[in-house]
Amino acid sequence: MRWSATTLAVLIVGTAGAGYLYYRHLNGNIQRGERESGDSKATKTPPNAAGQTPLNILLIGSDSRASDENVALGGSRDHRDSPPLGDVQMLIHLSADRKSAAVVSIPRDTRVDIPKCKDPKSGEEFAADNDIINESLAHGGAGCTLATWQNLTGVYIDHWMTIDFAGVVRMADAIGGVEVCVRQNVDDRPKPGRDGGSGLYMTEGPHKVRGKQALQWLRTRHAWGSDLLRARAQHMYMNSMMRELRDQNVFTDTGRLMDLAEAATSSLKVSEEIASVKHLYDLGMQLKSVPTNRITMTTMPSVQDPLDRNHVIPAGADAEKMWAMLRDDVPFDKNGTGKPSSDKPKEKVSADPAAPDAEIGVLVQNATRSDSLGVVNGRANTVTQALVQQGFARAAADTSGSYAEERTVVRYPSADLEGDAQRVAKSLGIPLKQVKKSSDVTGVTVVVGSDWRDGTEYPKIEEGDLPSNSDAVNGADSGQCMSVYKPYRW
Questions:
Q1: How far is 73 from 69, CA to CA, in rounded Å?
Q2: Chain segment 80-121, per-residue pLDDT in tens
Q3: How many helices (H) and strands (E) does the chain have?
Q4: CA nearest to 106, candidates 83, 130, 89, 127
Q5: How far apart are CA 370 and CA 149, in angstroms?
Q6: Residue-range domains of the chain with CATH
Q7: pLDDT tens string 226-273
Q8: Distance separating alpha carbons of residues 365 and 398, to the nearest angstrom
Q9: What Rg, from alpha-carbon coordinates, does the chain have?
Q10: What is this structure's pTM?
Q11: C-alpha 3, offset from chain centre
């Protein structure tokens, strides 16, 4: 509900420099915090041939009531000392070549594993827990939410940004309004048996929302019908805001930029490594360069939580496919040139010759086990049989148990087996970048990860090949309009 204001801040905050003192003033506005405060083992994506890496920024909308202004805007909860929840969480992924971007929302009621975290301010430690993802913010701040995302997705996240209710109102006023649309008259009000409501009240058709009404739009849930549809309304707001900024040419209006920068820096809290106008300016220029038709808004594919019908969990292979696309920096859209990028790393073929297939010893391990997806029984046997049928007569399945790996890899212990390992990978369709030397194995070992849960050929991921249940919306689509759930029409 507040992420859109944060994105605006990233786009414009650094361009309003009007002298050193004003620069220092803007820097002093920015609140900062520790980047990561929980247990996580995610690693950065290796650079492409041009030395570029993807950029991932986690946007968090906090429902903190830590000020009188936030209490007044917050609605149902009216206590300043209530632990804040991260009710809106979105990951912005900027591709390594800076030619496309993706935004992924996770519903606030998604049940996940929250790692052990430590509050960087108080020093309080929180044990690992299995709970809905919005609780992670109260387990050690935004750094704990970042660690939770990294463990869930396997995606390294470079930075986080948070904004509260009051920040959204300030930013919405500063931009001058954002156009949204409803198909029917809407009144998101409390109803018998259904407390809360954002207070959004408007007639059908397009409207330009600002200030408190913008906050109501971003917080509305009941009138759309679900948290998943609330994410769609937020995506509509973000897309419209991006188009609005481009149409207004705000980067050439110094006065407006100063107003926007003032509002942005006083509304943000960011991870400490980007807590300056210069860093935010650099981020903004990178985001600004992406065409709107190369920006894709999505929501994590999910299914109802079997333990609580009011919650959701990641939708198995569909969610894993989305995470794999982020990890491998595969564009969510199909609007690129269609030509292979010269910036993509070339696969390094080993100079070590492979032995004949029938003489290569291969051990296959089942590592499909994951906290959210469970284990696929029999995967080691299935892949082993596929290898045998291709002529790898010495292939055998590891029957000692199941393991857990996010990504399928082929490991080998020494340089003289690199060629053999690459030959095995090629036969299964596994990219050579996933062939790794390792002291943990004694021979060529295929580790079937949670990203390969069925079939006998490693799944290829194509540009724009998103799961059908990801609710994808392109940034250039200006025809979006929200349908109102019947009980909230008037």
A1: 6
A2: 556 678 888 999 999 999 999 999 999 999 999 999 999 988
A3: 12, 23
A4: 89
A5: 15
A6: 3-338+469-488 (3.40.630.190), 357-449 (3.30.70.2390)
A7: 888 999 999 998 888 888 877 766 656 666 667 777 777 777 888 999
A8: 5
A9: 24
A10: 0.81
A11: 12
